[in-house]
Amino acid sequence: MTDQLVISIDAMGGDNAPDIVVEGVEVYLKAHPEASAIRYLLHGDEAKLAPLLDKYSRVKAQAEVRHTDTAIDMNAKPSQAVRRGKGSSMWNTVAAVKSGEAIVGISAGNTGALMAMSKLQLRTKDGVQRPAIAAIWPQPKSMCVVLDVGANVECDASQLVEFAVLGEAYFRALYNKEHPSIGLLNVGTEELKGNSVIKAAHERLTESELGLNYIGYVEGNDISFGDVDVVVTDGFTGNIALKTAEGTAKLIGHFFQESLNSTLWSKFASFLNYLGFMRLKKRMDPRRANGGVFLGLNGLMIKSHGGTDGLGFANALSIAIDLAKSHFLEEIEEELTALHVEDDNIGFIP
Amino acid sequence: MTDQLVISIDAMGGDNAPDIVVEGVEVYLKAHPEASAIRYLLHGDEAKLAPLLDKYSRVKAQAEVRHTDTAIDMNAKPSQAVRRGKGSSMWNTVAAVKSGEAIVGISAGNTGALMAMSKLQLRTKDGVQRPAIAAIWPQPKSMCVVLDVGANVECDASQLVEFAVLGEAYFRALYNKEHPSIGLLNVGTEELKGNSVIKAAHERLTESELGLNYIGYVEGNDISFGDVDVVVTDGFTGNIALKTAEGTAKLIGHFFQESLNSTLWSKFASFLNYLGFMRLKKRMDPRRANGGVFLGLNGLMIKSHGGTDGLGFANALSIAIDLAKSHFLEEIEEELTALHVEDDNIGFIP
Question: Any chain B CB within 8 A of the CB of A277?
Answer without folding.
Answer: yes
